[in-house]
Amino acid sequence: MDKQTLKRDVVIIGSGPAGLTAAIYAARANLNPLLIDAPADAEKQTTPGGQLMITTEVENYPGFPQGIQGPALMEEFRKQAERFGTEFLETWITEVDLTERPFLLYTAGHTVSAQTLIIASGASAKWLGIPGEAKVPYGFGGNGVSACATCDGPLPAFRNKTLVVVGGGDTAMEEATFLTRYAKKVYVVHRRDKLRASKIMQEKAFRNEKIEFIWNTAVDEIFGTPEDGVTGVKLHNLQTNETTIFPCAGVFVAIGHKPNTELFKGQLEMDEVGYLKTSGHSTATNIPGVFACGDVQDSVYRQAVTAAGTGCMSALDAERFLDHLPVAMPDGDEITIEGEHITPDHKAIITADGHMFSNEPEVAVGEEQSQSRE
Ligand code: NDP
What we know:
By secondary structure, the chain is of the alpha/beta class. It is built from 7 helices and 24 strands. The chain binds NADPH dihydro-nicotinamide-adenine-dinucleotide phosphate.
């Protein structure tokens, strides 16, 4: 079967809060964005709509004083993106070629050519892969098992209850400390007798009277009922091999996140964990015309509202980038849509009033350029 070629000015990868906000902004700017998202796949942990699709009530997204269910919130985002004309394509991207513009994205049925690319492919919480952990109805995910204390910790099901946090890094310390605001007691179950977390986070957790540590221990299984959610876990002492049933009302898995950046390895700059690097106060990656927003470039805040914020930024960055691309005129001149002439070597732009400024990619994006014009 011949592949269909789609040519677009703005292509967005990912349909979480970042990708859909980028779509809303790009669509409202008449850029006819194409948003590509992966189909739902339990094994690959992909869900159109992103991580909020596996969250229950979201109480901290501004504008919803009574709270809103994660999937319902994403449905609203999506409707808003659709309303302004975002085109959706649900398919797996098998390969991307960012060596030159237009960038090329390959799927089973399409070759997508993109003048600008906004990457909002998110990050996935790492899971233990134990019985009882999967999402409802297969396990207690969303009904007592969570990977986000900020999202789920304040829910009534966890208030004044005994909770288990799994992990020994900064995320686990942060989650455990946060959960003590609501829980009766928080047990941190860690597979070694030493934490990986930074000293300051460790000390904060050690000082907290509501937190206790269970060392050299793995969680082998999560138990519960559909009505009550989680009721306990099977703990496994890795030194003695002894197993015990430990009653608790919730399990927070905090063993790290994995940014979804496999496709871009070797092409885009990433940190040692794989988060995409963006430059300064912008969403620009190391390749001009490629922008990254949301959890795929944020290992620190990881909130829906911050993802939406950077999604907005990336659409504005893409719009400005496109505005400054040269357009060929019938007389052979190349001008930008703001009426500026491009020098033949494309290295400089001459404004209508005769000023010349650089057209080098690094300054063609974001604020630096607008500042250099002033
Ligand atoms: P880390 O990779 O630092 O820690 C993961 C923890 O989970 C480790 O203790 C690890 O154990 C444990 N773990 C991993 N896999 C398993 C498994 N299969 N079973 C049981 N335990 C497992 O991830 P974090 O998310 O904690 O931190 C990621 C980065 O984000 C770090 O750089 C951190 O500093 C940063 N961060 C910063 C925060 C802040 O400054 N406020 C808050 C949160 C994160 P082991 O130690 O044995 O390998």
